[in-house]
Amino acid sequence: RTKQQGKNNYQLYAPSMNTKALERLTLENNLYKALKRGEFLLHYQPQIDLNTGQIVGMEALIRWQRDEVELISPAQFIPLAEETGLIVAIGEWVLQTACTQNRAWQLAGLPPLRVAINLSACQFQQGNLVQIVRQILQQTGLDPQYLELEITESIAMQDINLTITVLKELKAMGIYISIDDFGTGYSSLSTLRDFPVDALKIDQSFIRELWTHSSNKAIVKSVIALGHGLGLKLIAEGVETTEQLQFLRSLGCDVAQGYFISRPLSTEAATQFGFVSQIFEQRF
Ligand code: C2E
Ligand code: MG
Ligand code: MG
Ligand code: MG
User: Fold this and answer.
1) Which ligand places an atom closest to the C-alpha of 93?
2) Which atom of ligand 1 is nearest to the CA of 61?
3) Which single residue of 46, 107, 148, 228 could bond 116 by disulfide (Cβ 3.0 to 4.6 Å)?
């Protein structure tokens, strides 16, 4: 720093604060502002029924429109939002927005579908999740059967008793529950049996390397058999090719999601997709 650059900049170089910490603080502050300014938006990724080709769901995936050009992916800000607890407010916005959108789709005449939302651990452990969800459903008029909540195995395993209690309440309301990224966490078979869930989402890492990693075929086959044996539906994530789709169909997998069907879409594009998705059905 030269002297001419003046006094005003000195705070930025407080010796106790390294660049990482500063970046973090700035990002944290910006995330808070982003929520207040309405800079978050949702993209929606279609999910199709592998028996009929019909669209059955849309997963809501958050993005941050920081300025006109930059669309920031959740991997870049969700972890910090989780650490700081801001995810609770962001998550409530996601729920509200996705439920409102799904209701709007139904009113516009789209075939009824579930909107799936990703929950973070903090939201799950808040204590008032059930209340918030109930309130948002009432406000938006969305039938609970058209809301899907996704939790990961790691969230579910943090406090098994809490998980079971909360999931039971959500399920009693008629909400659809799925376990996201299944196969990458540490749930045991006995806990899985005790979790009142509807579906397992097979993690995309298994689907991506079905042919390069021959054991993935065996894993996917077993997970589908296990899930069905427990009375659950199976959703495959990250389906990118027709070969993967056909393989999953041959194993009786119920639902598929991935770039082969569609990338996550803006609200407008998702609406279009919903209306023209019969085209997909004809391919089946
Ligand atoms: P996820 O819930 O497992 O979502 C699937 C991710 O895989 C999405 O990434 C999606 O765009 C991507 N994907 C879908 N199909 C394919 C495919 O065929 N190939 C490949 N390579 N990728 C595919 P995205 O949107 O970047 O989201 C990443 C993660 O961020 C999500 O993983 C979820 O854990 C988290 N996330 C997204 N939105 C939210 C949110 O509203 N709240 C919370 N708490 N987490 C969120
Ligand atoms: Mg998900
Ligand atoms: Mg996933
Ligand atoms: Mg995930």
Assistant:
1) 1
2) 38
3) 148
Instruction: Answer whether 209 contacts ligand 1 (Cβ < 6 A).
Output: no
Q: Which one, of 224, 156, 145, lies nearest residue 186 by Cα?
A: 156
- CA-proximal residue: ligand 1, atom 17 (nearest): 238
Measure the CA–CA gap between 232 and 245, rounded to whole angstroms: 19
Rounded CA separation 121/88 (Å): 9
Nearest-CA residue for atom 4 of ligand 1: 61
- In residues, how long is the chain? 284
198 within 8 A of 176, measured Cβ to Cβ = yes
Residue 191 to residue 133: CA distance in whole angstroms = 24
pTM of the full structure:
0.92
Run of H or E including 116: strand 114-118
Q: Which ligand sits closest to the CA of 121?
A: 1
User: pLDDT (tens digit, 0 to 9) for every residue of the chain, 284 residues total?
Assistant: 444 444 454 455 555 667 888 888 888 889 999 999 999 999 999 999 999 999 999 999 999 999 899 999 999 999 999 999 999 999 999 999 999 999 999 999 999 999 999 999 999 988 899 999 999 999 999 999 999 999 999 999 999 999 999 999 999 999 999 999 999 988 888 889 999 999 999 999 999 988 888 899 999 999 999 999 999 999 999 999 999 999 999 999 999 999 999 999 999 999 999 988 766 676 67
Query: What's the rounded Cα separation, in Å, for the pair 68 and 55?
Result: 31
Q: Provide ipTM, 2 decimals.
A: 0.98
Whole-angstrom Cα distance, residue 151 to residue 178? 6
Residues 204, 207, 211, 214, Cα dihedral to 10°: 90
Give the residue, by CA position, lying nearest to ligand 1 atom 19.
238
